[in-house]
Each structure stands twice: as C-alpha cells, then as structure tokens.
Amino acid sequence: MVQFNDLEDLLKRGNLNRGEFIRAAGMLGVSLSAVGAVLNGGADIVEAATCGPAAMRSRLTKKAHFKVGFAQSELTNPWRTAETNSMQSVFQQHKNRFSYSWNNAYSSTNKQVSNVEDFIAQKVDIIVVTPLQQDPLRAATAKALAACIPVFEIDRESSGKAGTDFVTFIGSDFVGQGKKVARWMVANTKGPINYVELYGTTGATPAILRRKGFHDVIDKQSRFHLLAGQDGNFTLAGGKQVMQNFISKYGQKIDMVYSHNDDMAFGALQALKSAGITKKVFIGTIDGQKKMIQDVAAGLVSVCVQSDPRFGPITFQTINNYLAGQKIPQWVVVHDHTYIKQNAASLVNTGF
Ligand code: GYE
C-alpha cells in the first residue's frame, strides 16, 4: 500500500505536482496541516486541491438545492435518538432547499468511514458527521475534503483541525462539563471520598475530555481517591456491568460515582440498588435526560451537567451561514445547564 512517505518521494522526484500530492495525501487520510508541513506552507496547499474552503464554498453558493448527508455513529441510547430525530426534523422542514439523508455506523468506526465514503460517492454537497472515535475518523474527513465536500463535525470531533480539515466543530465544552461535576463534588462533600469512574467509549472526544476536565479539578484535592475506572461505552448495560464489577470489588467503600453520561449512571443506579447498597453515594453525570433531571430533583443523583443532543437547529443555522458566505468560527459552542437539587424541578423541560 502507498504510504505518505512514498508520496513525498514522488513529489521530490517530480513525479507528482503539488495539486496531485495534496489530493493523493487526502485519499490516504493525511490531514491538510501535515500536507502543508511537507509543502512548506503556501496558499496553494488548500487552493491547489481545487477544494479549499474558499473554492468549495463559492462552488456551493451557485446552487439552489443541496444534498446533505449525516453520518451518525450509533443509536445505542436515547441521546443518539434525540440527536438523530432533531437533525431529521429540521431538514425535513426545508425540503425545498435541502435533500437530507443519514446513515448509521452501528458503533463501528470502519463502517462510519465507509458511510462517509458512500456520501462522497453519492456526490452530496455537504457532509455532517459525529465521529465515533476521534483518530480513525480523520481519514474520512480528509477524503471528503479531497472530493471537495465540506464537512461539519457535530457533537464529537475528529482529531483533524477545525477550519482546515473540516469547516467547524459544533458541540459542547466537554472539558468544562467534567470540571463542573468535579467542582460540585469538591464544594458539597466532606472528608475522604473514594470514587469510581465510568468512562465513555474509548477514543471518543467526550470520553477523553470529560475525563480530563474532571481530573484537572479533582486531582488537586488529596481527599478524593480514584478506586477504579472503566469503559462503559456510553450505554446503560455497559454502565451497569462495569458498576457491578466495581461493587463486587469495593462494595461499601464506594462513596461517589462519576459517570461520563446519563445512561451509564442509570446502569450504576440499578447496580447499586440490586446490590442492596443503601448508604449515600454521590453521583455525578452528564447529558440531561428528563428522567435524570427528575432523579436530581428527587436527590437520587447529586449533579448532572447538560450535553444537549438537539443538534438540528444549530447545525442547520451554521450550514446556512456558511452557504451565505459568513465566516464560521472553528468551534460553534453549545451552551449547557447544570442541574442540581435546587434548580432541577424547574428545569425538567429543558431535558430530552
Ligand atoms: O454524552 C452520550 C452519547 O457524543 C456528546 O455520546 C455525545 C455523547 C453523549 O452517546 O450520551
């Protein structure tokens, strides 16, 4: 198989020109920033590919009807269903301007890469993707770029660079979410706290960054002690399974649970209940399902930071701004509530 350094050799020997080099590197999944490093910068890195951001956009603004393809990663919890429905509903309201279709990668990174390739083959005008895992999906966005199709990453990000490798990242501040849970625990608990952590899918941006944000705060407090952490895959069944393991190992020692999403927290609650653990266990989670906000109001869960899955309107708006020639920020930030016992009852309707 051809590697990036083979392309560099061909470029040096004059067998490939810059434009060909850029396109070929794109097909290999190499990011434009890495290609730019080899070519020593230059405006042509992007433009020579005939599909740099400016050229891509001017090609699109001449059109009146756009095909949009959304590459969903999986449908394994209510959050994903809410996101999928939100996208579908907003684009269906604008059928005169957009033909919308979506596909499901069924939790397979390879499938998601090939789903993006399917959209490229169908010659859609815009690709929206929620990268299941950050590194492997970089190849898919690079391929779309090589085919002159702008990519909008929503909810999760790939490891390419927004503004260069894809138009923008639309989503929540995952580091901030983790910090908010940690700060609540620091301010509202006393004495030594032994805790367990339920991680989201390995390699997914929210799992990586929610962990980082939380530990940036909690690790500075010596009274908090991490007993164990494990991947629960952002699902109820996964969270329950992991929590059962933790309970059989640490039982009554567990004072606190930090879960990277609501579904795993629901799984943890079930596991605690069926193990007959009745002591106060502090639970912190992220997402903001209606049912979870109610559990916060009832005092079953201490703190829940919202991560709003209703991406339809904000994605639609951002795409329209892009088509209207506006400058799109590299990060379109989704702002989230923090639910605690004092405000949860009045905010239940902000849940999904
Ligand atoms: O927290 C979780 C979902 O990517 C932000 O993924 C999203 C996360 C969300 O499966 O419930």
CATH architecture of the domain at 174-308 and 338-350: 3-Layer(aba) Sandwich
Outline the biggest β-sheet: 6 strands, parallel
Strands in their spatial order, largest beta sheet: 2-1-3-4-5-11
The helix content, as a percent range, equals 40-55%
CATH superfamily of the domain at 174-308 and 338-350, called what? Response regulator
Strand content: 15-25%
Q: What is the 3D form? A: globular
The name of the CATH topology of the domain at 174-308 and 338-350 is: Rossmann fold
- Strand elements, count: 12
* Ions, cofactors and other bound molecules: beta-D-fucofuranose
Specify the CATH class of the domain at 174-308 and 338-350. Answer: Alpha Beta
How confident overall, as mean pLDDT? 93
* Uncertain segments: none
Distance between the ends: 46 Å
Total DSSP helices: 15
Question: What Rg, in angstroms, do the CA atoms define?
Answer: 22 Å
* Broad structural category: alpha/beta
